TrEMBL record, chain A:
<feature type="transmembrane region" description="Helical">
    <location>
        <begin position="234"/>
        <end position="255"/>
    </location>
</feature>
<feature type="transmembrane region" description="Helical">
    <location>
        <begin position="12"/>
        <end position="34"/>
    </location>
</feature>
<comment type="similarity">
    <text>Belongs to the binding-protein-dependent transport system permease family. CysTW subfamily.</text>
</comment>
<protein>
    <submittedName>
        <fullName>Putative spermidine/putrescine transport system permease protein</fullName>
    </submittedName>
</protein>
<dbReference type="Pfam" id="PF00528">
    <property type="entry name" value="BPD_transp_1"/>
</dbReference>
<keyword id="KW-1133">Transmembrane helix</keyword>
<dbReference type="InterPro" id="IPR051789">
    <property type="entry name" value="Bact_Polyamine_Transport"/>
</dbReference>
<keyword id="KW-0812">Transmembrane</keyword>
<feature type="domain" description="ABC transmembrane type-1">
    <location>
        <begin position="65"/>
        <end position="255"/>
    </location>
</feature>
Automatic annotation (TrEMBL), chain B:
<protein>
    <submittedName>
        <fullName>Putative spermidine/putrescine transport system ATP-binding protein</fullName>
    </submittedName>
</protein>
<dbReference type="InterPro" id="IPR017871">
    <property type="entry name" value="ABC_transporter-like_CS"/>
</dbReference>
<keyword id="KW-0813">Transport</keyword>
<dbReference type="InterPro" id="IPR050093">
    <property type="entry name" value="ABC_SmlMolc_Importer"/>
</dbReference>
<dbReference type="GO" id="GO:0016887">
    <property type="term" value="F:ATP hydrolysis activity"/>
</dbReference>
<dbReference type="GO" id="GO:0022857">
    <property type="term" value="F:transmembrane transporter activity"/>
</dbReference>
<dbReference type="GO" id="GO:0005524">
    <property type="term" value="F:ATP binding"/>
</dbReference>
<keyword id="KW-0067">ATP-binding</keyword>
<dbReference type="InterPro" id="IPR003439">
    <property type="entry name" value="ABC_transporter-like_ATP-bd"/>
</dbReference>
Amino acid sequence: MRLSRLSRTTLGIVTGVILLVVYVPLFVVLVNSFSTSTSLTWPPPGFTLEWWGRAFQSAGAMEAVATSVQIAIIATIISLALGTLISLALQRFEFFGREAISLLVILPIALPGIITGIALNNFFRTIMGVPLSIWTVVIAHATFCIVTVFNNVIARLRRQGTNLEEASADLGAGVWTTFRLVTFPQLRSALLAGGLLAFALSFDEIIVTTFTAGSGVTTLPIFILNNMFRPNQAPIVSVIAVVLVLVSIIPIYIAQRLSGSEAERR
Amino acid sequence: MTETQPAIRLTALTKEFGAVTAVDHVDLEIAAGEFFSMLGPSGSGKTTVLRLIAGFEQPTGGTVELFGQDVTKRAPFDRDVNTVFQDYALFPHMSVLDNVAYGLRVRGLGRKERNERALRALASVRLEQMAGRKPSQLSGGQRQRVALARATVVQPKVLLLDEPLGALDLKLREQMQVELKEIQRELGITFIFVTHDQEEALTLSDRIAVFNDGRIEQLGTPAELYERPRSRFVADFVGTSNLFDVERSRTILGRDGHHSVRPEKMTVSRGGLDQPGVVDVPGTVVEAIYLGSGVRLVVDLDDGTRVSVLEQNDRDRMHDDERGDRVVVSWHEDDVVPLGIEALPGISG
């Protein structure tokens, strides 16, 4: 497709502006993590590596990272298991109320976090009588993390059809063997994509977390929010932010390479 | 026991999908070692019958017996039949060898033995050098042969083939027809072959069941179906026919009921044959189509009936007929096939 010179220039400028809006603030954060100013003044008066050293020695920050990773991993595992099962149930079997259940599964991701937060807070404390802890956060996160796995897996199952499963059964494989040798390998990349999204969703969630975390459970987003406006802590927050940017590039890179090699094989 | 029992016996087999009756009280026996075809247009129920035999669908009524054993309620993995799917359904994440060895693997055979047997099966379809490839790296015809090897390596008693040649181009299809027939003869097992291609069915089969509207319209050898179709539908679907409805049968043939005459049983001459037992009807050539091996003439008889005549391109063909020529179409009384009195439901036109 060929574009006129004018539209090419215009589109180029628009693209450039949008990329700038997205990436300049990230760059500012990176610069601030080396700034000698403790209150994020711009331009930075000087540069230092002090905050980087302090951040990695900060027990609070490291603990927050560990808590967040732990919650995200467990919530993702729960989502992968339940999301795959519900997708198989809804896509491969006919039963009463199928459509309704499909809607109910997707709904949590559309619900405002504040509502989920209040509802779960109430439910855990007053109805269930369960004290808030790290596990209440995990359950709360899993309610909406399931959706990303579910969406990915059910789309794959729908596209795949039942042919391969029928072929497997035809050749003598029972239901479980068919799942292990045929269905699951076909779902692998969908599970990876859904799982990475679920992990990311959980990792930076703050609203539902605030309502469901027990005292003493500090996830990384909560730690950042708490420290952002404290004197002398702002540069440390910047350091953490930069590390998180670097860390989040890795799974995206892996996911892209995986889907790339899969596209080649087809 | 297996000598006397039919490989497959269907009794009053019925399948309804909601309000639609896809298969309607089908009774059928298929002998062991037979190459049996189920022929019909799409939606005629032939594929559903195949899926009922394989166990992918549960019948609404009736039974499926396999060598005398009622398998109606059994799951697909519990039946001694295997399927070659229309789109092959090869497992894309496995190598060709693993695909073929799959049935042996789920039966618990060790890797060494199952790979040996899979390689032998691949060799029988001349694809052993492709063992390490992925299905996506094969051509359509090669995938087809892998699917065949995968289904036959577990030595089923009955092999079901669901339009296995449908996706191949003409040359390859003809070549695969020959191979299929050879493989069937070598293995000596029952083949049940679903197709909408009447020529393919005639070429390959010992017997054919012509399906229409969920029922078997006619069952017989290729020659029986072609020479003696019993209904308008069969006469029209298997090969081409000149159909004479009740009125035209009366005026032209002087008989009651529907009739058909095959185009190659008709000849065209200038003055008619004037022999005993031969009908001569004058008409005008509407179209003459050169086919290489012959010529197809479309002739409007004087009462308006349009017939198609197939003339062999041999030494006897002395004249060239052209559009507008006055001719006489002749056929022998014995080549008129009665199709019954009733106007049978079938495809018209």
